[in-house]
Amino acid sequence: MQEFFFYVKMGLHHVLDIGAYDHILFLSALAVPFTFKNWKHVLVLATIFTAAHCTSLALSVYDVVAVDVGLIEFLIPVTILVTAIFNFTYVFKEGVNMGELLHYVATGFFGLIHGFGFSNYFKMLMAEEENKVTPLLGFATGIELSQVTIILIVLGIAFVVLDLLKVKRYVFIAVASILIIAITIPLLIATFPI
């Protein structure tokens, strides 16, 4: 059990590490269009993302699929950029049903990419481990707990801005998405495969 909690802690630290802010940016971009009133929609998106990235993490750990690390490092900021740009559908069209199926499919695909990104770090962590199941479950649990934390923080910020400060929803989504895009552009440039 101690081993399991060690990997839970590693998963938490990996996502919540400010140096690894790409994970925080993606989850923020994913949650920005929503409020606590839309919690079911956010839960579905987070579940799809989780299932997809756990799948690619497991496929990589068990050496079923190998993906170029440089390509994944570039694709992660691409997923952030595309998600932030997609948020503008919520600015120009009211309602969470706009492009719902597309949003689900894209989130699942992006989850696969992020899972491969997690896999490199995870493989380094467990280089000497014979048993991969316990570390994998622990690491995935830590990642999920951190993702829920980030999403709840974004929804909390949305509550303060929208309900207490009375900022228009479309303004909040647009400003937050533009900020995420501005932070992501240097990541794209730094990881661009030459």
UniProtKB/TrEMBL annotation:
Keywords assigned by UniProt, alphabetized: Membrane, Transmembrane, Transmembrane helix
Signal peptide (UniProt feature, chain positions): none
Pfam families: HupE_UreJ_2
Residue ranges that the Swiss-Prot or TrEMBL entry lists as coiled coil: none
Membrane spanning residue stretches: 20-36, 43-62, 74-92, 101-122, 142-165, 170-192
Source organism, top-level taxon: Bacteria
UniProt protein name: HupE/UreJ family protein
